[in-house]
Automatic annotation (TrEMBL):
It comes from Nocardioides kongjuensis. Pfam families: Biotin_carb_C, Biotin_carb_N, CPSase_L_D2. It catalyses: N(6)-biotinyl-L-lysyl-[protein] + hydrogencarbonate + ATP = N(6)-carboxybiotinyl-L-lysyl-[protein] + ADP + phosphate + H(+). Its EC number is 6.3.4.14. Keywords: ATP-binding, Biotin, Ligase, Nucleotide-binding. This is biotin carboxylase. This protein is a component of the acetyl coenzyme A carboxylase complex; first, biotin carboxylase catalyzes the carboxylation of the carrier protein and then the transcarboxylase transfers the carboxyl group to form malonyl-CoA. Residues 1-445 form the Biotin carboxylation domain. One of its GO terms (molecular function) is biotin carboxylase activity.
Length: 457
């Protein structure tokens, strides 16, 4: 592979460009009108304009991207995460153009990236799944029939979704009709498919995910990540290393994940996500993401492996550069997402020009971002402006390092969630790993009841 077109923007586009450059591979950025001065455009060797600001006319436009591939002469396409990264039709179109898709092939994306089909594959492989619909739910009549079995609360999820997006929690029957139509409309707008399915909602679960990697012949795992700190199903803090879940449960999750990957001769990076019910000591498969994850850096820090570089090598036809026995975790890593949002005012987006941007440094501190001072945060896209990642020998020291790093982070011109994140890591519950997927919203409600701001702790 000699030239890769990066079909994405922001920090992941910068991350891919860096990995490619270290491997001697040229890169092509694509950008919308809103991103004409974006960092990801400048770090690539070439850049091609693909359309106006709305994602549907640019980053989600298959014709625009195929034209950019043709114009650039790229022989590889890295989709990053989000946008078209799990769109099998796009992967197929890229391959049909004689260009390498950096990720699993279209068949594997359809089988595992489609959340409805993935549930069936997991069940066939003997992996426990959350009780719910057998496939896509088309209307209220079908939804009511499923709810009769699962009970309430239940979750409506986008079949093509991921990253916590496209999920609606329904507490009672009267909410179901509106939630179904809203979830279908949101799924269609975000992922290009209105397909949704239903699962029982487990309110006090831990969200644990397993990083897998395959080369079509072998598949391995790179441990687990705890992504239980969530607000409205969006991950806020992610950890790898010393996860407070019984070792035998984690080993079962890892084994099940590798079996799934092997069942489809998986190629590239993937993540198998589970809910862990601490009260029942049971885990359930929820979905597989057939692409690199936002939180992949914590795995990289704990295992000392460059997962994006590995994607590029495997897509070039090389075998996995490591065996399962060579993958030995060390220490603990934590990542926090920094969004341009006002936590003190309902998390409303805070687009605009960043007038000052100073990031933390020092040993074992990493910042992945697609922004610098004078960058403009666009209202058209995801509000995340960066990720702060730290590593240390154990979890307590990693928390201390993260505390120090967040104190050094300075962003002016837009409001960010950095104070909110700092307040979270200061809580006793976080420091004791005593939290689950709905804990954060309960904590926020309690802060409001006490008259505290959510940024105060």
């Amino acid at each position: 592979m000699r030239k890769v077109l990066i079909a994405n923007r922001g920090e992941i586009a910068v991350r891919i460009a860096r990995a490619a450059r270290e491997l001697g591979i040229a890169t092509v950025a694509v950008y919308s009108e809103a991103d004409k001065n974006a960092v990801h455009r400048k770090v690539a060797d070439e850049a091609i304009h693909i359309g106006p600001a709305p994602a549907g006319a640019s980053y989600l436009s298959v014709p625009a991207l195929l034209e950019a591939i043709k114009e650039s002469g790229a022989d590889g396409v890295h989709p990053g995460y989000g946008f078209l990264s799990e769109n099998a039709d796009f992967a197929e179109a890229v391959a049909a153009a004689g260009v390498t898709w950096i990720g699993p092939d279209a068949a594997a994306i359809r089988q595992m990236g489609d959340k409805v089909a993935a549930r069936a594959s997991a069940q066939a492989a003997g992996v426990p799944t959350v009780p719910g619909s057998d496939g896509e739910v088309h209307d209220l009549t079908e939804a009511l029939a499923v709810a009769e079995v699962t009970g309430y609360p239940l979750a409506i999820k986008a079949g093509a979704g991921g990253g916590g997006r496209g999920i609606r929690v329904v507490q009672e029957e009267s909410e179901l009709a509106g939630a179904i139509s809203t979830a279908q409309a949101e799924a269609r707008a975000a992922f290009g498919s209105g397909a949704v399915y239903i699962e029982r909602f487990v309110p006090r679960a831990r969200h644990i995910e397993v990083q897998v990697f395959g080369d079509g012949e072998r598949a391995v795992h790179l441990g687990v990540r705890d992504c239980s700190m969530q607000r409205r199903r969006q991950k806020v803090v992610e950890e790898a290393g010393d996860i407070d879940v019984p070792a035998e449960i984690l080993a079962e999750m890892a084994g099940a994940s590798v079996r799934l990957a092997r069942s489809v001769a998986y190629t590239g990076a993937g993540t198998v996500e589970y809910l862990y019910d601490e009260e029942r000591a049971e885990f359930y498969f929820i979905e597989m993401n057939t692409r690199i994850q936002v939180e992949h850096p914590v795995t990289e820090m704990v295992y000392g492996r460059d997962l994006v570089a590995e994607q590029l090598k495997v897509a070039s036809g090389m075998p996995l550069s490591f065996t399962q026995e060579e993958l030995v975790p060390r220490g603990h890593a934590i990542e926090v997402r920094i969004n341009a949002e006002n936590a003190a005012n309902g998390f409303i987006p805070s687009p605009g020009r960043i007038t000052r941007f100073e990031v933390p440094a020092g040993p074992f501190v990493r910042v992945d971002s697609g922004f610098v001072a004078n960058s403009v945060v666009s209202p058209y896209y995801d509000s995340m402006i960066g990720k702060v990642i730290v590593w240390a020998e154990d979890r307590d020291r990693a928390i201390a390092r993260l505390d120090r790093a967040l104190r050094e982070l300075t962003v002016e011109g837009v409001v960010t969630t950095a104070p909110f994140v700092k307040a979270i890591i200061d809580t006793d519950e976080f420091r004791k790993s005593n939290y689950h997927t709905t804990w954060l919203e309960g904590w926020m409600a309690e802060q409001e009841r006490l008259g505290h701001g959510v940024c105060d702790g």
